[in-house]
Amino acid sequence: IVFNVVSWQCIVGPALILFARSLEIPPSLVGLLISFMPLSMLLVGLTVPLVNYYGPKRVMLTGWLLRNLLASAVFLIPFVRGWGLHYAQYVLIGSVLAFSVLRAFGAGGWLPWLYELVPVNQRGAYFSIETAVTQLTSVAVALIQALLLTGPANDWRFLMVYGIGIASGLVSLVWMTQIPGGASTRATAVPEVSYVAYRAAFRDRAFVSFVITAALGHSSLTWLLGSALVLYMRDALGLPPAMIMSITAAGSMGIFLTIASWGRFADYAGSASAMFWSMIGHAICAVACMLLFPGAGWTRALLWAAFVIASVFNAAFYVAANRALLGYVHKQRRVVYSNLWSIGTSLAIGTTPI
User: Fold this and answer.
1) Greatest CA separation found in the chain?
2) Which of 48, 217, 279, 315 has the most crowded Cβ, counting Cβ within 10 A?
3) Half-sphere exposure of 175 (CA within 13 A, CB side)
4) How far is CA 101 from the centre of its chain?
5) Helix 56-71 vs helix 110-117: angle between axes, to the nearest 10 degrees?
6) From CA 332, how far away is CA 194, in angstroms rounded?
7) Which residues make Cβ contacts (< 8 Å) with residue 249, sequence separation at least 6?
8) Residue 199: HSE in the Cβ half-sphere, 13 Å Cα cutoff
9) Pseudo-torsion of CA 207, 213, 215, 219, nearest 10°?
10) Which of 2, 273, 290 is nearest to 138 (CA)?
11) Cα separation values, 335 from 44, 67, 92, 196, 276, Å
12) CA separation for the pair 18, 119 (Å, rounded)
């Protein structure tokens, strides 16, 4: 998780938005750029026979190796910039799209593999611990990025961030090979492991209702903590990249300090209660952001508070929703159930920034 988070944050995290704006990609196209990652997850619907025949582990290793290699195309930006700025923009957009597509094919094996590894009575604890590790790592990454991006923005500062991300992504693959499970079922034609299983999953009304509810929740969260607030900090409030990454680090630290409590609350009160209260808290933070007037004396302090608290509720919703998901998954059809979950939430998260 640690190395994968470093890779993710450096390649498609908030620094990507700042890199895109430094290349003068319009804000409207930044929303499209951010949507590549979630919308590409629709491709997981095609991975059912791959995951069942080759196994989740092999599919993830192959897809995520290729995603890191193709993302390396970003290092061509200094060489093509001389031909015109739009060529540099095309290279960044192409590298992010390639990274997203290959990541999606590999991600088709993640939830089925996780379902195999995590015991039922430890799912809330697992997702809270995973989130805590993710956020503590994100704090360190954001602070390092803030140091690297201090000073005048230029391509090489952002490419140093990318280099760290690609190197960490390759190291994460070495660790992934050590994780047990993820073996192939060597079956693709029986109903439980083929495309026919989607029919049964769509007939599961409780599961479909849950996916729709969670997707709407993820969309609500994305309105604030997707690209919009980072763009607002840069373009409307005029904050430098180093300050923006410092605020991002504070949000990650807030999640780290509180996420274990949310995991215990979800195990005690249930996922529905945790999802409900996290959405209420996030809505209050969204209202607070309406008061972030440029030039107002309270804006800086309110921005820090709103971003940190909204990040906490965002992570709490993630933990509760993923904990609930594993309770709905049918053991014999876990690949298609996981894929439908990924497709539903990815549609919501991907269309929102557009």
Assistant:
1) 64
2) 315
3) 9
4) 14
5) 140
6) 11
7) 138, 139, 142, 143, 146
8) 5
9) 180
10) 2
11) 10, 22, 32, 12, 27
12) 40
Q: Specify whether the CB–CB gap between 134 and 253 falls below 8 A.
A: no
- pLDDT at residue 186 in the model: 59
Distances (CA, A) of 60 to 14, 100, 180, 182, 316: 24, 13, 13, 9, 26
Can you read off the two tokens belonging to residue 204? 């599961």
Using DSSP's 3-state secondary structure scheme, residue 104 falls into helix
- Beta-carbon contacts of 219 under 8 Å, excluding residues fewer than 6 positions away, are 348, 349, 351, 352
- Nearest-angstrom CA–CA distance, 213 and 180: 33
Task: Tokens 């390639």: give the residue.
Answer: 98
53: its two tokens: 């025949």
Q: For tokens 């029919």, what's the residue?
A: 199
Per DSSP, the three-state class of 293 is coil
DSSP-derived secondary structure for 232-267:
IIIIIS---HHHHHHHHHHHHHHHHHHHHHHHHHHH
